[in-house]
Amino acid sequence: TRGIGYFIAAPEVHRKKRILLLIDKLSILEQTLIDAFADTIGDRAEINIHLHNQQVELLDYYINKYIGYYDWFVITPHFPLDQSTQRQILTILRRIPNRKLIIMDRKLENLKGNYGCIWQDYEEDAYRGLTPIAEELKSAGTLNVIISQSSLYHKYTCTSVLNFCKDNGIGYRASYKVTPDIVRKGEVYLLLNGQIDMELTLLVRTARAKGLIPGKDFRIISYNDSPVNEIILDGLTTISADFEQMGRQAAEMILNNEQKRIKCDFKLTRRGTF
């Protein structure tokens, strides 16, 4: 193995497949994806999980160290979007044979080859997710979009929401933080935060200070779904990729020894806040 040297290979007969799952961070969303992946694999393979923390150096380290050990590399390629970083990512990923590689959650247009990929479309999905409630949003008049700039893809999701509002004659008001002056009765708020974090907490806390009840006096839609959303605020309405599907279908590619290109489902889930 290059960079390691020579060694006696372990017997290959009857051994389980070895899978390295390289994800950017551990959160509720990633946990949903991992659980679905592991449940589908079952005891038919060995899974190890490492975090690359959106650091190119860590990705490079793990690929160099394990390229000869694992049968499959399943990677979420979430890294800074500047051209220099993206070129480095492509160079690193090209070292992995296509037959061993599955990309999850983001499609890399410039990575060629017959590898597996299941992704969400950050530029289009929000538009599709909001379409079923377009008429209700028209009645509201304006969609208040609260944007978390910590998200790598906030520019793409914002563009998707803005295009939806323009095409459907809906007002669009963007804010980068929750302040008391933007919280008003009768309004609809879309949280493009990607996670359950301070934006939702501040919105609800501020509203309650004004005597406003979520789902009754104002409405909330959050981007990205997870099981806990079923109980938050008696049910948090979301638009989201299906992360269980993503993990399950990535695992099925491995079990069936095949590489597919799959666009992950994206849907609206209505609950108590809308």
Q: For the largest sheet, list the strands in their spatial order.
A: 2-1-3-4-5-11
Low confidence ranges? none
Work out the strand percent. Answer: 15-25%
The number of helical runs is: 8
Shape: elongated
Distance between the termini: 56 Å
> How confident is the prediction overall: mean pLDDT?
93
Order of helices and strands: EHEHEHEEHHEHEEHEEHEE
Explain this structure.
The chain has 274 residues and is of the alpha/beta class. The chain contains eight helices and twelve strands. It has helices at residues 28-41, 56-66, 83-93, 125-130, 134-140, 154-168, 198-209, 243-255, and strands at 17-23, 45-51, 72-75, 101-105, 116-119, 142-147, 171-175, 188-192, 219-223, 237-241, 261-263, 266-269. It has a six-stranded parallel beta sheet with strand order 2-1-3-4-5-11, with helices on both faces. Helix 3 (83-93) links the parallel strand 3 (72-75) and strand 4. The longest helix has 15 residues, at 154-168. The mean pLDDT is 93.
